[in-house]
Prior knowledge:
The chain is of the alpha/beta class and 475 residues long. The protein has helices spanning 11-23, 27-40, 45-57, 61-74, 81-91, 95-108, 112-125, 128-141, 146-158, 162-175, 180-192, 196-203, 242-248, 252-256, 268-274, 302-306, 342-345, 353-356, 374-377, 394-401, 413-421, 464-474; strands spanning 229-237, 259-266, 282-285, 295-298, 328-332, 362-365, 384-386, 406-410, 425-429, 450-454.
Amino acid sequence: MAGRPPPRRGMSAALAEAHRLAAAGEAAAALALYDGILAGDPAAADAANNAGVLLRRLGAGEAAIRRYRQALAAVPDHPDAGWNLGRALLEADQADEAWLHLRRAAALRPGWERWHGLGRACQARGDLAGAEAAYARALAARPEAAETLNNLANIRQAAGQPEAALALQDRALALDPGNADLHYNRALLLLLLGRWAEGWREHEWRWQAAGFVSPRRRFASPAWDGGPLPGGTLLLHWEQGLGDTIQFCRYAAAARARVGRLVLEVQPPLATLLHGLPGVDAVAAAGDPVPPHDAHAALLSLPLLLGQALPGPPPSRLAAALRPEPGRTGLVWAGNPKHLNDRNRSLPLGLLAPLLARPGRRWVSLQLGPRQADIAAAGLAGRLEDLSPTLADFAATAAALVRLELLITVDTAVAHLAGTLGVPTWLLLPHAPDWRWGTAGETTPWYRSLRLWRQPAPGDWAALLPRLQDALASR
Length: 475
């Protein structure tokens, strides 16, 4: 409830007292006093801005945004309200409006923090040139800012300049050698560049990186060091995404050769598919009680633990007998919308409509999730059969894949499954691909049946279309 408005002659004293309460950590009392001030004078910009700061700190993002807007309505050139509003909007994934406010804030009060914030907004909008210019100004103001060097490295990588990105990461690590996020980003660059042995060593920093998607698991057993464990049971557990599990289960047999028994814990949609995998004595679904074991390891640590830096072949158990039907062509155009890079790796289904118009092909969709609705939205229901109701898990997806003459897909778990099964697959990659696909070429050591199609420029899926049409015609 808003506090009672103080008399107008006491506004300055009330504002000073609210500031004091806020500084002392008495947020509720400070907010009540700010509310009282604003009830008496809705144009009290400092009170509105500072109330927004407190609300944001308390996790009330939408209420904070309303207060920042109130401050700006009263004083459009308020030195801090636009800056605070821009940051709050950026946190709320409203990058376009955030950019407008952060650009104005940087012009009003230029400095490292504001140029860095503007760079983040440009980055979120996919404006690589704008982000690079903003980060360059930030570094001019503070050359030792490791976080800006890291973000600029990400921009260079997105622009297809991984070597330049790695040089920036090295500069950042020289300034902040214990920063786990910098080490993890450097690991992904090394792997992208094919520097496997060094990359796998750096990759162990992922567990300490704030932005890593899979928190480190805690077990009563010790972590496995890759050495012999005769008579003991090793628990190999999943991490990251479904595609990562499919890709790295190839190392299970080599791990099993060093231990007495091996239990593989995977995400539930993969449990049926991976039963009977060579070297795996039992498969457990994540969420079920963890089976007894003597040591544990994460799947993506196996190349380092086993000393097998180079990619090995997929497990033969999953290289199924293919039963392709002539002309039957599968399509997947979007990945998990929660993936951090989904905006770059997924594409609009309508862009592929000219492919679907080609005669002699029976097109089927293996798309799952909310983007299934794209079929109807793009008016393609008559050309593209939706198989999603039949794809209850990855075993069912595998059964659908082996009937395909060809799969065309973006970088998502289905590509890994198709590659493991040996299904001919065209993988459509963004200009800055995920580390596992390297920087150039049409082939990958991970899967022999994949052909890689790379964007020639960031976001330019349309440039691939004529090449895809010609290649389909030649089939």
